[in-house]
Amino acid sequence: MGQISNLPAALPGKFRGKGRSEICPTGHRYPDHMPEHRYQTRLQWTGNTGTGTSHYTAYTRNHEISSPSKLAPIPGSSDPHFRGDGTRYNPEELLVASLSACHMLSYLHRCAVNGIVVTAYEDYAEGSMVETPDGGGHFTGVVLRPSVTIAPGSDPAMALQMHDEAARLCFIASSVRFPVSHQPKIKVR
User: Fold this and answer.
1) What residues contact residue 176 under an 8 Å CB cut-off, 6+ apart?
2) Low-confidence winner among 1-5, 84-88, 120-124, 150-154 (lowest mean pLDDT)
3) Segments forming the whole domain that contains residue 121
4) What CATH number has the domain bearing residue 177?
5) Do 77 and 108 share a domain, yes or no?
């Protein structure tokens, strides 16, 4: 995979915070030093059927998403409504999946450090998107519906409360401009 160029050295100053008095877009205070993490992906369009984009119907929307050290690429396309291949993941599904996975990882962490033993976790997430008259669109919200099983002796009320903490801590949910809600179910087994 080639190098990704033109990455900014850091986020613009209004988002980075220089001291404890600055507040980030989500309302949290920035510490004096914030660790910065970087993520790289490679997207390769594989939909040239021989004539490129010579016409709107002359190409497929298929592509592959990869990243260094990952086991396999993710097959991507657009939503079938936009001439995509419904057997491949579309960006909208990947956004919903990212929110779901981030919430789960934050939730498992909060449970682990608070003495709640999670033995199973499954989420049925759903996002809503509207199209705008100019041909664009945007998400209006995502609902996470995690079904969590905890071990006997774990506190179900605290397990439920950990979803609120996970929602507050999720990096992805803190980065989107639409509501992300959760409707969890807790089972003791």
Assistant:
1) 95, 99, 139, 142
2) 1-5
3) 91-188
4) 3.30.300.20
5) no
pLDDT in tens, 154-183: 999 999 999 999 999 999 999 999 999 999
Q: How many CB atoms lie within 10 A of CB 118?
A: 19
Q: Does residue 147 have a pLDDT over 60?
A: yes
CA angle, 162 as apex, 34 and 108 as ends, to 5°? 70
pTM of the model: 0.81
